[in-house]
């Protein structure tokens, strides 16, 4: 249990620094955009309404974003660039970051432990499992790239 607590603590510090840093970069980018030639575009009524909505209701989105893969950076950057107030952002960061750290500490250590045992007791099976995992990841990446490269009308039936 000490291993999980130590790992969760380390991951918590890492996520607070990473997500908080992303928020700060977003804040600075938003401030720069407000002083740039884009200032007119981002001061429209529609943009200001969206900014107020994010400032008010974005905290739950930030907290839940830590349970997703690939969305948390965008959510933290957007929260910063849309000037979410710190009293709303920080609790979301602390709660979401804690959930992220606990999940990765428990599941991550569990997977590493299983792989360690597998390699120690049955090396061929361990190597095979890692190879299958790598092939699956490569297959998903290739599938997604091919799918995104297809023209929009290529999936439409040909009625000629």
Task: Give an account of the 3D structure.
This protein has helices at 2-34, 45-65, 72-81, 86-121, 123-149. With 160 residues, the protein is an all-alpha fold. Helix 2 packs parallel to helix 4 (86-121) and helix 4 (86-121) crosses helix 5 (123-149). The longest helix has 36 residues, at 86-121. The model has no long low-confidence stretch (mean pLDDT 85).
Shape: flat
Number of strand segments = 0
Relative strand content: under 5%
Number of helices: 5
Radius of gyration: 22 Å
User: Helix/strand/pairing class, anyone?
Assistant: mainly alpha
How do the SSEs run, as a string of H and E? HHHHH
Q: State the separation between the terminal residues, measured CA to CA.
A: 66 Å
User: What integer is the average pLDDT?
Assistant: 85
The low-pLDDT segments are none
The biggest sheet, with number of strands, parallel, antiparallel or mixed sense and barrel status, is: none
Kindly report the oligomeric state of this protein: single chain
Helix content: over 70%
What topology emerges from the helices and strands here?
Elements: H1 2-34, H2 45-65, H3 72-81, H4 86-121, H5 123-149
Short summary:
This protein is mainly α and 160 residues long. It has five helices and no strands.
List keywords for this structure.
mainly alpha; flat; 160 residues; 5 helices
